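Entry type: protein chain
Record version: 2
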Amino acid sequence: MKLSELADFLGGKLDGDPELEVSGIAKIEDAGSGQITFISNPKYEKFLSTTEAEALICSPDIQVPSNGPKHIIRVSDPYSAFLFTLERFNPPMAWASSGIHPTAIIDSTARLGSNVTIGPGVVIYKEAKIGNNCRIHANSVIGPAVSMGEDCLLYPNVTVYHQVQIHNRVIIHSGAVIGSDGFGFVPGKDGSYRKIPQMGFVILEDDVEIGSNTSIDRATLGATVVKHGSKLDNLIQIAHNVNVGENTVMAAQVGIAGSVKVGANCQVGGQVGIAGHLEVANNINIGAQSGVSKSLTLSGTTYFGTPAKPIKEAFRMEGAMRQLPSLFRQIKELEDKVAALEAKSGEGKHQ
C-alpha cells in the first residue's frame, strides 16, 4: 500500500514519499524494511533511533531523531490509527463461504436471513430467527425462539439457550454459554435444595463481544442484560438478572453475582468479584482481584482491594501493611529495652 493511500485512509498528514510502498505493520522494536510502525506511549520513544521501520505513525508533537524513520504520518490519535492500519493489512479471516453446510440441522420453523453462513454440525431449534449476514460456525447450538440480529459472528461450540435475544454485530467466542439457568435454590428442612425455576432470558445489545468460555445466566424473571458496546473477556461469570451498562469492559475471570447493576463506561480488572444485589456507578474502574462487598457510588472513581475502596486509601493501607514486619521488630526491640530497664530498676531496689 502506498503511504499516500494510508495517510488518506487515516486522515493524517504525510511527511515523506507518497509513493513509498509499505507491506505491513509491526511493533516499533520488531519492524523491518518495508513495514510501518507506530508510537503512542512515550516509553517507546527510545526505539525511534533504532527501529528499522520504513515509516512511522505518530502524533504531531513527537520529535523523530535524524536517524529515525524518514517517512512519517502524523495523526491526532496514533493508537486508533494503528488499529485501523492493522485492520487494513489484516482483514478478518473467512472461515467459510456463505451458505448452509449439509451437516447442519435446522428446524423447519426457524427463519434465516440472507447471506448467512451456517457451519458443519450447527443445530438451530424451532422458531429461531437468524438475521442477515450472520455467521454461525461449527457445532454451535441455537435454542428455541432465539432471535439474532444482523452481522453477528458466533465461533465454534457456542451454546445459546432458548429465548435469548442477540442484537446486531454481536461477537461470541468459542465455548461461551448464553442463557444457562441462574444459580437459584431454596434450602429444605431436610438439607436438600429445591431448584427455583429460571423463567427469564438474556439480552445482548448491539456491538457486544463475549469472550471464550464465558457464561451469562438467564434471569429468574425479566432479563439479564449486557448493553450496547460492552466487551466481556474470557472466563467471565455473569449471574441472573445482572445489568451491564453501555461500553463497559471486563477482563478475564470476573465474577458477578445475581441482580448486580454495573453502570456505563466502567472498567473491571481481571478476577474481580462483585457480591449480589449491589450497584456500581458509571465511569468506575475496579482494579484486578478486588472484592466488591458494597455498592460503589462515586462515579469516576478507581477502586481497589478487598473490600474494594478508593485506590488512594487502598494504597495507603497496603503501604501500612508492608511496614508491619519492621514495626513488629521495632516493638520487639522496645519491649526488650523496657524489660532490661525494669530488670535494672529491680536490681537497684534490692541493693
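Comment: The two ends are 99 Å apart (CA to CA).
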